[in-house]
Design a protein that fits this description.
9 strands; Spore Coat Polysaccharide Biosynthesis Protein SpsA, Chain A; alpha+beta; two-stranded parallel ribbon; single chain; about 45% helix
């Protein structure tokens, strides 16, 4: 439903030197037809059509395997970037030689009305991020030449959270640019049930991937819950 706006937001970037890898995770709508239309118009678009649904994490990993660029960015089909997102953020990274950056973003309704602006700190470390998962996946750019190759954890949700922690655990700091350069769409399907599943997956990351002890898990989870609620106000 929002895929065309998403694609256009990338190909209309003021920064032009990129490849756009689109993974069609065996969609049952008209996504593939739309993708093929834009492939004919723009040679920078590299489509991947899957024969079965493998989930967001594995779909992203397939794209990561195909990616040729130094810098990696992410964008889901419901969301979109502002025209200067890549140029502004890459300037920010190159000026300071940062490996891992993220930005502020707007939370919007299905109709594109702004709900709130998510401000971000100037930097966030591993232990701070455990308590405040403020990094929006659609805002991230990573210099893969500095961090080395990486992939998402194959879990239902919070795979991006697990990846950011993995990168920060290697000693990298995530640097924030408090400028709104993208919009995250809050869908009506984002109900209490989905929020509960996300919370369960966050706990899974704490205990099974990061191997935190129980007391630290509880402390981090309390802070995570508080900060998640605060972002939605």
């Amino acid at each position: 439903m929002y895929l065309e706006q998403c694609i256009c937001s990338v190909i209309e970037q003021t920064y032009k030197n990129f490849e756009l890898i689109i993974v069609d995770d065996f969609s049952n709508d008209k996504s593939s037809t739309l993708i093929k239309k834009y492939v004919k118009r723009d040679s920078r678009i590299k489509p991947i059509y899957l024969n079965n649904n493998i989930g967001a994490a594995m779909a992203r990993n397939i794209a990561l395997q195909k990616a040729q660029g130094k810098y990696i960015a992410f964008l889901d089909a419901d969301d979109y970037w502002y025209p200067n997102k890549l140029s502004r953020q890459l300037d920010f990274m190159q000026q300071h030689n940062y490996a891992f950056t993220f930005t502020a973003y707007n939370r919007i309704t299905e109709n594109g009305i702004t709900i709130s602006k998510v401000h971000v700190p100037s930097k966030i470390t591993y232990y701070k991020y455990l308590k405040n998962t403020i990094i929006g996946c659609l805002t991230v750019i990573i210099d893969r030449e500095q961090t080395g190759y990486f992939e998402m954890e194959n879990i239902r949700s919070s795979h991006d959270m697990a990846l950011w922690l993995k990168i920060m655990k290697k000693g990298f700091v995530a640097h924030g640019l408090d400028e709104v350069l993208s919009s995250y769409r809050v869908l009506s399907g984002s109900n209490t049930s989905n929020k509960l599943k996300s919370a369960i997956d966050v706990w899974y990351v704490y205990r099974n991937i990061e191997k935190l002890n129980l007391l630290l898990c509880i402390w981090c989870f309390i802070n995570y819950s508080y900060n998640s609620i605060k972002r939605r106000i």
